[in-house]
Specification:
This protein has 462 residues and is of the alpha+beta class. The chain has two domains: 268 residues, Orthogonal Bundle (2-methylcitrate dehydratase PrpD), CATH 1.10.4100.10; 121 residues, 60s Ribosomal Protein L30, Chain: A (2-Layer Sandwich). The chain is 50% helix and 6% strand. It is built from 19 helices and six strands. Strand 5 and strand 6 form a beta hairpin. Helix 2 packs across helix 4, helix 2 runs parallel beside helix 17 and helix 7 packs antiparallel against helix 8. The longest helix has 21 residues.
Length: 462
């Protein structure tokens, strides 16, 4: 290993990791603040709905069958109608594959990180297998979210090279399992440091190019995180310095040790998350909102578009694919997202399915999209703005600016909107939305999670 030229920074980051994991291990015995509990419940519901939304995807179904061939003793539910229960690690892997497939899971706004999707597949399988309560699930979720997001903030990538699903999924899953098991500070540190050593270099560009293995990174992360927790109990630990050595030494990130500890217990990462109603990369959401506004202004004139100019933020400028090869590539294509929004008036799942991918109207409009940098970039939360201009064949032009897409902490969706989304994403299990809605609204914390699962999956659509 090549040692960092600043050993003092390595030591500081190790001390900060110790402080973070010790705080989390102690806090698991304390009640969550009401606002944090409410956010954790919403993340639980939203991400579980996202898993169910992918149940019918052919590749997801095929992978469930592959996992079932070698699964051990049935312990945990796979959230797909007709799927048998699997051992907890296999169930976590199956649900982890589904979690990010439709791009409808929540994310964190302050750094590239989808902590809920990293934590929940393993956490929910463990909770069901061990009979943990809803309150214990929410507690472990909120605290593991804190660990995961703080790692993403403390070790920032200078450019979009390694995808966050590959970089941080193992850490999130391991943190959730360790916390649910009531690990001591030392054991929790052993668990998450071991998991950090097993982060992997999934290329960010694979999402843009539509390589479906990108959706497997949350699956692999769930399995690795759970096994890291098992291994730590057997003495297979990493080091407090592992985080620095992996991210700075191997991935070449920056290092901000104070991001691991500042505001612990008073500033909760889970309150800085965002939720989606558009089924694509969040970097395109502002542009979709602007496009839908233009569609209202120029109602009925979509067929007259000669050019769509998208002036956007630097991360939005990475979404350049004009001819996406897969539905995943479409979800990471600004040209496709803007063409679909113009042609069919939605940024939802219908804008990114196979039919939309091959729609000749959308294909024609994709080739008319031009990306350019937007010079006026504000501070967060206005750091992901987009201005969209339609130029029609008769020379008419119209523009719309979205400085910050809805769904973040600055413009959150209300609970009714999120529950309506849940009813749609989880419709394969008609009982799921009511059960989760009760949890979101503050009830059922003492119920065993496995009882909630049994009720949610007791009936399926015909």
């Amino acid at each position: 290993m090549t040692r960092d030229p600043d050993p003092a920074l390595r030591a500081r980051s190790a001390d900060a990791v110790r402080t973070l994991t010790a705080w989390a291990a102690a806090s698991v015995r304390e009640p969550l603040p009401d606002s944090v509990r409410a956010r954790a419940a919403l993340v639980l519901a939203d991400d579980l709905g996202a898993m169910v939304a992918a149940a019918g995807e052919p590749a997801v179904a095929r992978m469930r069958a592959v996992l079932a061939r070698s699964a051990g003793r049935p312990e945990a539910t796979v959230f797909a109608p007709g799927s048998p229960p699997l051992d907890r690690a296999s169930a976590a892997a199956a649900n982890g594959l589904a979690a990010t497939w439709c791009e409808l899971d929540e994310g964190y706004r302050g750094a590239p990180c989808h902590a809920g999707a990293y934590i929940l597949p393993a956490l929910l399988a463990e909770a069901e297998a061990e009979g943990a309560s809803v309150a214990q699930v929410l507690q472990a979720l909120a605290l593991a979210y804190e660990i995961t997001v703080r790692c993403a903030r403390a070790f920032p990538f200078a450019a979009m090279t390694v995808h966050p699903h590959a970089a941080f999924a193992t850490i999130g899953a391991a943190a959730g399992i360790g916390l649910l098991r009531g690990a001591s500070p030392a054991l929790l540190l052993d668990t998450v440091s071991a998991a950090a050593s097993m982060a992997f270099a999934g290329p960010y560009g694979h999402a843009i190019e539509g390589a479906l293995v990108r959706n497997a990174w949350t699956s692999a992360g769930a399995w690795i995180g759970l096994r890291a927790a098992d291994g730590a109990e057997a003495g297979l630990a990493g080091l407090p310095e592992t985080f620095h050595d992996v991210f700075v030494g191997s991935f070449g990130t920056g290092c901000i040790p104070e991001a691991l500890t500042e505001g612990l217990g008073t500033e909760w990462a889970i309150e800085g998350g965002y939720h989606k109603v558009f089924a694509c990369c969040q970097y395109a959401h502002g542009a979709i909102e602007a496009s839908l506004s233009l569609r209202t202004q120029l109602a009925g004139r979509e067929s007259e578009i000669d050019e769509i100019l998208v002036e956007t933020h630097p991360r939005g400028l990475t979404l350049t694919t004009v001819e996406p090869a897969t539905v995943l590539a479409a979800k990471f294509s600004m040209p496709h997202a803007l063409a679909a929004a113009a042609a069919i008036g939605t940024g939802g799942q219908g804008a990114f399915d196979e039919a939309a991918l091959h729609d000749p109207r959308i294909a024609d409009l994709r080739r008319r999209v031009r990306l350019a940098p937007l010079p006026e970039i504000g501070p967060p939360p206005n750091d992901r703005p987009s201005r969209v201009t339609w130029r029609l064949r008769d020379g008419t032009t119209a523009s719309a600016l979205c400085e910050s897409a809805r769904g973040g902490a600055d413009q959150p969706f209300d609970t009714d909107t999120m529950l309506a989304k849940l009813a749609e994403t989880s419709r394969a299990f008609p009982a799921m939305a009511p059960v989760l809605a009760a949890i979101v609204r503050g009830g059922g914390d003492e119920r065993p999670w496995r009882d909630c699962v049994a009720e949610m999956t007791g009936g399926v659509e015909s």
